[in-house]
Amino acid sequence: MKIEGKKRIWQDYQKEIADDSYFYVRSCVRQNFFPASEKIFLKILKEELFKDIYENASHTTCSGIGYHSDVVPFETTMTIIARQFALMTEAGYENFVSSCITSFGLYSEVLETWNHFPEVEDRIREHLLKATGRQFNKPKNLAHASDVIYKFRKEIGERGKFRLINCKSGKPLKGVEHIGCHYSKMFPSKGIGGAEYPYVLVGMIEEWGGEVIDYPERRHCCGFGFRQYLVKANRGYSIACSKKKFESMEPYHPDFILTNCPGCPMFLDRWQYAISEMEGKTYGPDGQGIPVLTYEELAGLILGYNPWDLGLQVHQVPVEPLLDKMGIPYNPETKFLGKNGEDLGRPEAPSFLHFYPETK
Amino acid sequence: MKDFGYTINPDRQINYDQNSKEPVYWLETMEPSVNICISCGGCTATCSARQFTDFNIRKVHTLMMRGETHSLKKEIKKCMLCGKCQTVCPRGVNLRNLILSIHKILEFNNL
Amino acid sequence: MKQSVIIIGGGIAGMEAAASLARMGIEVTIVEKENALGGHLLQWDRLFPDRKRSDEVLEYLKKEMDSSISVETGCSVKEISRENGNFRIILDNEKILNGNALLLATGYDLFNARKKEEYGYGIYENVITSAELEGFLRKNPQPGLMKGFQVKRIGIIHCVGSRDEKVGNLYCSKLCCITAVKQAIEIREILPDVEVFCFYMDLRMFDRHFEEMYYEAQKKWGVHFIRGRLSEADENPDHTLILKVEDTLTGLPLKMTVDALILMVGMTPSAGTKKLADMAGALSGEDGFLMPSDEHLQPNETTVPGLFLTGAVKGPVSVGNTLADARAAALKIYEYFSRMAG
Q1: What is residue B83's three-state secondary structure?
Q2: Which of A205, A324, A347, C156 measures 20 to 30 Å from A18, CA to CA?
Q3: Element (H, E) at A32
Q4: What is the CATH number of the domain that holds B72?
Q5: Is B102 within the bounds of a domain?
Q6: Domain of B32, in residue numbers
Q7: Helices in A55-100 by DSSP H: which ranges?
Q8: Cis peptide before B10 (omega within 30 of 0)
Q9: What span, in angstroms and rounded, lies between the C-alpha atoms of B57 and B25?
Q10: Is B12 on the interface with C (CB under 8 A)?
Q11: Which helix (H) or strand (E) holds A54?
Q12: pTM for the complete prediction?
């Protein structure tokens, strides 16, 4: 691998990311999948970076899941998105930040559609006005939340208490990055680093001391694919996609997987459990899996937040091996305690995946 | 092992690295003209068996060359050895011997 | 008074046209941006289909170069103007040239393979271009192509930068197919134990002896041809490469590890051509190559009297056809002068 070649491509795919004053929109599913990630994003921006970031309770789904599953027509989707822009405009913001990759892709698609077909934009403005009485300005800057963390990766690293370095050997930890398909495959120029060698997560891993592994199936989809996962009969195809990736990355012995999409960390995490139960196969050493993190979770770990406040206890692949390598302290006793110290109960241990805390 | 109500789909990609190179080796040895095929499909167009079955000698040949032999034993038996294909081939591939050789290789290697 | 021609471009088209014009008693000046005449051929090893050494062609062309031909190397054209039917050219070294006719022979550039990001050129260790393989064969026609490990399998990718809307080149570069066949044979000659796979969309063996060379590659050298365009290449930990194509003749996706990947880079209009054409008044086609006034009947003439074209400035063309075209251009210039003299 010649890093100069990659750097040259990265230079070609830089994009402007606003510096402050963000209108933030959440994902439909992330609060269930990875409950603390969005909260941590807001905390990092407000309390670590002192940025102005605002969200509005009236924000709804962008309808992306319905759109990609062929149940919501594009016309409806565009009008829903126009309403989100109206909320931003009414709140006095111009920089739109989306937590979800599907939404980010869809916002990009809608803006690009309006760019090429202004008459469609006019029609949608009319729809929105008739339906809700609202009007909107298009965002000046559209970014995915991972773009924002990428932008402030140095500041986060400087404030950080931990690094992606094995505390025993002093060597960089090895990470594989997995980019959500709709981050840059639809519009390569809208993603940092483009579609073939995206840099957004690589930049974070490198900045925080880790080493990135470029494994052959890096570009393969995690297998969510909307209809593929949503319809149970299709799940064999969804899980096969993740399996292809695990088998491709396994020879490199990654210490973690870093993702920036709502679906990918869910499937790369849960499918490792499902594969272990179905085939007895695990992809880490000694029955361990490969821990999967969202970029907010990783940023939170770097900043020294309590792993259980980051929601890492709800991952199906235990993250304790990674915490141990990074030298991050954690209390096994409080892993399954709820917010007010209430005991949430200990989940049933998987048949093959190593379970933490170990039973005495 | 748990049953979640779905299975893991097998990979349909031809994995050339994993496929055995034996079939190609034997085929090239037994009938060197296998390499000059240009996949024009003349053989398959005229094939008596192709009109009534899925048998596609052009494709069987290509699959053999990739070491993708798993379904071929059943396929090659559909050939009636009429020899029409050989009269059509613009490159002069010895199709009769090619078919007999594929048959022998699959039988001998129990593929 | 002796008539004079300025030729911009000192590749094989410019050289051959200059020699022909000089033999007709016409005064010739060649302007070449590099420090030596010969163009791309200087980097090439052997030519298809007869495997003639490119040096032989260069030696022939150099020998032809009459002492009356003046050559301006290492300089570029800054300005072209036309007055009373004559051309006045200012070079970047401020030198001024005058000519009764102008011949554009600025050739082509090889497609920049970095633009096909997914093929990993400039990123993966063992991805090279057809031109780099020629350079290697020229210097070192011995086994040991790759350092540090045994080479078992090499992949050759056709149509890199050609027939590809994504990189803006819809056209076929037409010479890459036969180059692939030639280089596949050469690899098998040097490394007989190496498997060679060519990945193609169509094999365009358009000229005499080309189809026979393809036949020879299959029959004598056992080169394998897989119909399918490379979708992406990825690097393994040991720097071998995984290729993903559809084997379109079986209808199945296929992956294969190769030790090295050779990209058959296409031809694109040379960097300076557009600017020169604009200054001289020549028209470009949609593909960026220059347009003669009639592709059938006036392949060397343009809509500007006294302005002529030859060689790959008009699109991909082989060495043999370039030389023939250069001679035709010289003849057309001679006829133009005869007509002007009345």
Answers
A1: coil
A2: A205
A3: helix A30-33
A4: 1.10.1060.10
A5: yes
A6: 20-108
A7: 64-68, 74-90
A8: no
A9: 19
A10: yes
A11: strand A53-54
A12: 0.93
CA separation (Å) from A21 to A50, A318, C309? Answer: 10, 36, 58
Nearest CA in chain C to A12: C115
Measured CA distances, C216 to C181, C188, C253 (Å): 9, 12, 28
Domains belonging to chain A, first-starting first, are: 19-145 (1.20.1050.140), 151-334 (3.40.50.11810)
- Token pair 């319809």 is at which residue? A231
8 A C-beta contact, residue C116 and residue C127:
no
Residue among B1, B9, B11 whose CB faces A278 most closely: B1
- Whether residue A235 and residue B10 make contact (CB cut-off 8 A), yes or no, is no
User: Given an 8 Å threshold on Cβ–Cβ distance, is C123 in contact with A1?
Assistant: yes
Instruction: Tell me the per-residue pLDDT of A107-144, one tens digit each, with 9 for 90 and over.
Output: 999 999 999 999 999 999 999 999 999 999 999 999 99
Residues of A in contact with B3 (CB under 8 A): 278
Q: Sort out which chain C residues have CB atoms less than 8 A from B16's CB and list them.
A: 254-257
**What is the structure's pLDDT at C141?**
58
Q: Subunits with at least 3 CB pairs below 8 A relative to chain C?
A: A, B
Which residues, 6 or more positions from C159, have their beta carbon under 8 angstroms from its beta carbon?
Answer: C172, C173, C176, C200, C201, C229, C264, C266
Q: In what order do the strands lie in the sheet with A256-259?
A: A211-212, A174-178, A256-259, A292-294
Residue B8 lies in a domain: no
Q: Does residue B41 belong to any structural domain of this protein?
A: yes
Is B65 within 8 Å of chain C by CB?
A: yes
Tokens found for residue B92: 């002069």
- In this prediction, the residues of chain A whose per-residue pLDDT falls under 70 are 360
- CA separation, residue C200 to residues B35, C117, C247 (Å): 16, 19, 10
Work out the minimum CA distance from A44 to partner chain C, whole angstroms. 35
Side-chain half-sphere exposure of C228, counting CA atoms within 13 A: 21
Determine contact: C231 vs chain A, CB below 8 A: no
pLDDT for C142: 60
Q: Which residue among B8, B9, B11 places its CB closest to the CB of A278?
A: B8
The percentage of residues in chain C with a pLDDT greater than 90, rounded to a whole number, is 90
In a domain, B3, yes or no: no
Residue C66 φ then ψ, to 5°: -65, 150
Q: Do B6 and A240 touch (CB under 8 A)?
A: no
Q: How many CB atoms lie within 10 A of CB C36?
A: 12
Distance CA C124, CA C112 (A): 15
Number of independent structural domains in chain B: 1
CA distance A57 to A258: 29
Helices (H), chain B: 22-30, 42-46, 57-65, 72-76, 84-88, 95-108
Backbone angles phi, psi at B78, to 5 degrees: -75, -15
Q: Which residues, 6 or more positions from A50, have their beta carbon under 8 angstroms from its beta carbon? A: none
Q: Which residues of A touch C236 (CB under 8 A)?
A: 216
Element (H, E) at C290: strand C290-291
Per-window interface: C 224-243 vs B, CB < 8 A: 224, 227
